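[audit] Reproducing an earlier prediction to check determinism. Same input, same settings, fresh worker. If the tokens differ from the archived copy the diff job will pick it up downstream; this log only records the rerun itself.
[audit] input (135 residues):
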Amino acid sequence: MRRILIAAALACGLCIGLSVRAADKDKKDKEIKGVLIDQMCGEKQMAKANPEESATNHPKTCALKESCANSGFAVISGKKMYKLDDASADKAKEYLAVKENATKVVVMGSLSDDGKTLHVSSIKAAADKDKKKTT
């Protein structure tokens, strides 16, 4: 009887561990396509009817200005704005500093529990098909 109870407890522990790991994987493996922008200007874009499209026209040079860059960085995807945490903001600044890099991006990272702050693991330029505007 004791062995059965121990085996059952181990099986339950294993199941719980696997489900927690699966939940963590879902949390970390988010791909967000959108526009990389400074938070100060991003807030202004969020008031528009189509924030992502409006942010596409925002100049990269503005996002790199000291006053704008100090506000932090964000990704606008559709009608949502995901603010980047401090470590991710450093990655965004490095990405934008490269002349060839556009603001239309694909970001991999994990969202905070509130779903508003993004911890970025990678930033790359969006594919050409993602960059084209539809009219």
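[audit] rerun output stored. Observation attached for the diff report: The beta strands are 30-38, 73-77, 80-84, 104-111, 117-125.
[audit] end
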